[in-house]
Amino acid sequence: MVAELSNNKLTASANALTAFNPQIWRGEMQETFFKESTALGIASVDLRAELSVGDTLHQPYASYARVQTYTKGTDITIRDVSASDDYITVSTAKVASFYVDDLDKVQNKYDAAANFAKGAMQQLNNVVDQAVIGAGVTYAGTEISGASIGETAGGIVLTEANVAKVFTASTRALDTKKRTNGPRFCMIGPRIKETIVNAVSGRETGFGETVSDNGVVANRFGFRLILSNNLPFTAVFDMDTILVDTDTVTINGVTFTADADGAAIGAGHFSIQNSADLCNAQLASAINDDATPGVDTYIALSAENRQLIEEAGIVAVTDIGANTLTITGYGDIVVSTSNSVSAVWSSVYQYALAGVDGSVALITQVAPMVYFRDAEVRLGKFVHPWMLYGVGVFERMKNNLVKIKIDASAWV
Question: Rounded mean pLDDT of 218-247?
Fold first, then answer.
């Protein structure tokens, strides 16, 4: 350090030594967090061996016999019998491809191909998880709603006081439909789990403090409770009047902002156009990212916000003429709006799924795997994580499943 004596005081000159400071790169990349797939534990996955070739697996079912009283010396009425065909088609192929150049492979500190492939595989597993739970809810033979537990019709406003009734009603539905054998499960979301934990607080310890590898948090109410971030969700955005500049719509923590017609600017902003229907259509495109971004349409979301939309499987569909936009997705999704035209969210529901193990059939002809392909005129490889599967519920298995309609309109 250089020092000068001035007026009998020692003063120091400013040093410029930052060029000596190293920049340190950690040995590992940041961890990327994905939803954990837990639905495989409830699905029937043994059908893959029966569909080594072809694309459709049939499993017919027979009509019921009819019992009658026999009177001595009289003819018996012969009843017709029949068989009905039922099948699941394997036709869903998903891919999450990317390219890695050999120069990057040589010079990068991190293994790009391995890291991106790992993330892609988790994304593919998440898609299958959503498909299994979604099929169970779609084809469930029974719906438990507010009326099922002696409350207001519609979605169940879940509370600590009524949460046990949800499970006793589900038990009744399965017992009534003669589904008395086999292990029972219930896929629950974080908010349902929270309600159950609060309901049993002080009466039981160790509930849900840890989550097992297959998502099980407890055995209670006669069900194996499995925590899932992929419960089906749906909501309707009712907009009779066109939004105005600066109005916002928020979905799963992602905010979409209305801008004046033809003046969209900023990530997540969209042009309101000149009618409610067209405004809805532009909002849907911003959510789905299915048009060309620009000032007349919408500005693409940031990468982090796009991940929040796509990982939750959120898709928007407009009803032209009805001025509505319906979103579907998976998880504990919260929707809200801040607008000046009284546009509102309605029919906001999440669906838990209860039933007997193995009731949803999952056929994975190609389990999530990775292909590497040479790029002919480049120094590098195309990486193709992909899978091929089909999922469904055979007719006689539908009454093994119960969907539980939860009112999610007050979630924040």
Answer: 94
